[in-house]
Amino acid sequence: MYKKNRSWMYDKDAVLYGMQSNFLEGVGEFIEFALEHPAYMSGDKIRCPCSKCKNLKFKDPHEVGYDLYAVGFVPNYYNWTSHGEPLDPSVIPQTVGSSRYVP
Q1: Which of 7, 14, 64, 98, by CA, is between 20 and 30 Å from 42?
Q2: Distance between terminal CA atoms of the chain?
Q3: Residues in domain Transposase-associated (predicted)?
Q4: 60: CB partners within 8 A, 6+ apart
């Protein structure tokens, strides 16, 4: 079972070039998850969810890891729908003042 608390995805500081150990571990788990869903891949490549590629480009998993270490995840990608995870409202953070209804 993968983490539903994905705050690690945006947990950066000055240590390890901005990466916490939980971030490094989480990126590995993310890539493992993506590789387990070949229907969402293009050959041996997965979508890159970095803030630069925004899930639009398919890349080698090692390149995806590098991009995530370098520039981080696209904002608010707590639910990995572009990588085979079903939509789960429990992992979508609520926004104060949002007009979106979340039961």
Answers
A1: 7
A2: 24
A3: 6-85
A4: 44, 45
Query: Do 46 and 83 touch, CB atoms closer than 8 A?
Result: yes
Contacts of 76 (CB under 8 A, 6+ apart): 92, 93
What's 13's DSSP letter? -
Neighbours of 70 (CB within 10 A): 13
Alpha helices in the chain (DSSP H): 21-35, 61-71
Q: Which residue has the tokens 């998993």?
A: 61
> Would you state the structure tokens that stand for residue 61, as one six-digit string?
């998993």
pLDDT digits (tens, 9 = 90+) for 81-98: 999 999 876 655 544 444
Rounded Cα–Cα distance for residues 60 and 65 (Å): 9
DSSP-derived 3-state class of residue 79? coil
Cα gap 28→50, rounded to integer Å: 14
